[in-house]
Structure formats: C-alpha cells, structure tokens
Amino acid sequence: NNYHYKEIVAMEPVYGSAGGNATRIYTREGKSHLDSRRILAVLRCMVGFFDADLDRLRKNYRAHLGCRLATPLPLTPRLVLVPIKMRSGISGNDGATGYISLIDCEKITAVKPSAEKNTPKCLIHLKGNHTLPSLYSLENTEKRLLKGRQAQFYYCSIKNNNSNYGEELKMKPANDEVIEKVLLIAALYYELFKSDKPSEEKPDIISKWLLEKAKELSR
After folding, report:
1. Distance separating alpha carbons of residues 124 and 106, to the nearest angstrom
2. 30: burial class by Cβ within 10 Å (0-12, 13-18, 19+)?
3. What average pLDDT does the segment 191-197 reach?
4. Which among 172, 189, 190, 155 is positioned nearest to 72, based on CA atoms?
5. CA distances from 78 to 7, 63, 109, 201 (A)
6. Three-class SS string for 191-206?
7. Which of 21-35, 87-101, 160-174, 201-215 has the least mean pLDDT?
8. Of residues 139, 21, 140, 153, the one with CA closest to residue 87
9. 88 within 8 A of 96, measured Cβ to Cβ
10. Which of 13, 28, 48, 194 could form a disulfide with 39 if both were Cys (CB 3.0 to 4.6 A apart)?
C-alpha cells in the first residue's frame, strides 16, 4: 500500500476503472489512493492492523451502544471509524457505506435538495482538504457522529479500567438511561467541537444548549 492505516481520514466505496468495486483511501496529508479491494476487505485489514476482529468489535459495540446497524468502530482513542452511506450501488452487493475518522471531521454542510439518484444530501469536510458525500440528511449525519463520540467515550472508559480489553472483557448491553446520559455528554462535546465561536463565548453557547435539552427531557 502507498498509505499507512494511521494516516487514513476516510474510506469511500467506488467503482474501479474496470467497473469492479474498489476503495478510495483519503489521508491526512491531503492525498488519495485507489485500492483495488472492496471496502469490506480494506476495513478488515485495517481493523486487524490494530489487533482487533471486525465481527467481534461490531458485536460488542452493537450491544453496548444499543444499535443494530451502522455501528461505529473505535480502534484507538483518536481513531473511531464512523459509517456513512456514500453512494447507491448498482447492485445490492456493491456496498454503499464508507467510513470517516471522527476526529478528522471539520464540518458538515448541507446540499441543495435533488431528486437525482446518488446526489448527496450533505458534504463532510475532513482534514487534508477532503470533501466526501453523505446520502444521509444533515441531521442524521450529525447523529452518526454523535454515536461515534459515544463509542469513543465507552472505548476510553474501558481502556482505563481493563487492560485486557479485546480478549477477556464481556460487555453488557447499555440500558436506555445510560445511553441517554452518554449521548448528552457526547452532544455537549460535539457542540464545543463544531463551534467556531471564540473561546470566551462558548460557555454561553453551551448554557443555551443545555437549557433547550432540559426542556426537551421534561416534556
């Protein structure tokens, strides 16, 4: 490969020059590389590089996060892969989901609505000056990132309390109350993360957000 797994900010399912399924790799240095393998094969190799098993990782975090599909994949505290639908495949087996590195997402912008197939509903701007499509709405794309922060929170908590994570840890499903609290924390951090306001204005932004959230929870 012409890239290192630690440099990756995104992986996108694409069609190669011969029409077969391939993967476009985007790196933090601002480069992109075409990998002739399908995105699932690239993903398995990447997860394996970090001494993890893809199927086990998905199973554990599906139970822990309370989600069935589109499960975020934490590989290190600073590398959480968030699944995003990036295309509509020609056939059902082509694969439509790509992955972005949570920490490398700089902003999300809306796209003018269109009825054309494969037209993105928003764009994800990443470090390295990369822009990738999302076929999810802006709101749903942001929810995917929030779920990624929730996974990051769990991963760091587990790492701090269990040095044998990955082999001996038996993760228990989170109940609704735990998920709600963690999502609240994750959302708060996300507000700080995406805000481009000066530092001195952020407390007011967060206070306003917390007040709105409290009103929602009291209904």
Report:
1. 8
2. exposed
3. 53
4. 155
5. 11, 22, 23, 27
6. HHHHCCCCHHHHHHHH
7. 160-174
8. 21
9. yes
10. 13
Find, among 136, 75, 147, the residue nearest to 111 by Cα. Answer: 136
- Dihedral sign computed on CA atoms, order 69, 113, 183, 194: positive
Identify the DSSP state of 7: G
Closest by Cα among 187, 179, 178 to 142: 187
Burial class of 16 by CB neighbour count within 10 A (0 to 12, 13 to 18, 19+): middle
Q: What is the pLDDT of residues 93-138, one digit of tens each?
A: 778 899 999 999 999 999 988 877 778 999 999 999 999 999 999 9
Q: Where are the alpha helices (DSSP H) in 127-175?
A: 138-161
> Mean pLDDT throughout 15-33?
91
Report the Cα–Cα distance between both ends of the chain, in Å, rounded: 53
| DSSP symbols for 17-41 | TTSSEEEEEEETTS-EEEESS-HHH
Whole-number Å distance between alpha carbons of 15 and 88? 12
Residue 147 to residue 145: CA distance in whole angstroms: 5
Average pLDDT, the chain: 79
